[in-house]
From TrEMBL:
GO molecular function: protein C-terminal S-isoprenylcysteine carboxyl O-methyltransferase activity
Protein name: Protein-S-isoprenylcysteine O-methyltransferase
Pfam families per record: ICMT (PF04140)
Assigned GO CC terms: endoplasmic reticulum membrane
Extent of the signal sequence: 1-31
Membrane-spanning ranges: 72-92, 104-124, 167-187, 199-221
Domain of life, per lineage: Eukaryota
Location(s), subcellular: Endoplasmic reticulum membrane; Membrane
Family in the record: Belongs to the class VI-like SAM-binding methyltransferase superfamily. Isoprenylcysteine carboxyl methyltransferase family.
EC number: 2.1.1.100
Matching InterPro entries: ICMT_MeTrfase
The protein's enzyme class: transferase
Keyword Transferase: yes
Amino acid sequence: MSPPPPLSPSSDMASLTLAASFLLAAHLTYRCWTPPNPTPTPNPSNSPTVALPRDAVGPGTSAIRVRRFIPLFLWTHHILLTLLSPSLAPTILCPNPHNLSRSLLTWSPYTTAIVSLIITVAPIRLLAFQQLGPNFTFRLARPAALVTTGLYAYVQHPSYLPNWVVLMANVALLLRLDGVLGCVLPGEVVRWGMGVGGLGPWPAVLVGVGVLGLWAIWIRVRDEEAMLEREFGQKWREWHGRTKRFVPGVF
């Protein structure tokens, strides 16, 4: 195998700026998945109306920690690979660098889209945290008041779709078989999973994750709205009637 090409100042700067962008995306992801308030103890009266794993509608403390720290580990690994690209050689950091797609480690339409999505939508979720204040909990719990100002004057659930977008962006970058995972996977598995031109089973997995995420959101919204109607009655029904769930003026 021929030695990797030497780094030029321009490629070095590109790697640094991309790594910095990834670091910001990782930070925003971590904050989006960190509870802004303590997770309340389970309340049977707030249980979902269908049998689901608890974390599908309101993650417990252990699930929240896992959801935060696994992506953080993968982001750290990906950032290190980005800084070392294009001079990657087999090391303990990445035993199989030949499996990696360089488009995931350099500025490309793909990485630009991933970073842009996270940087754009994550602040919306964080603003929802701030505006809902102590009433924002990851597990379903009765709020002290019905907040209908700020983002909540336009949509009833402003944090859920941004969270889904952040999730999909993370999956699309960090769980690609020719990304960080490719460092430890056999080449045959990577080639089979990604296929020719990215047309292997991987896109179907990405779509499946997206559908499951939307389904979990819908279940959470259904149970949350039932609880809010019980708690606030006509006040909630009026607010529910004049606002949309996710996108102002649309849906």
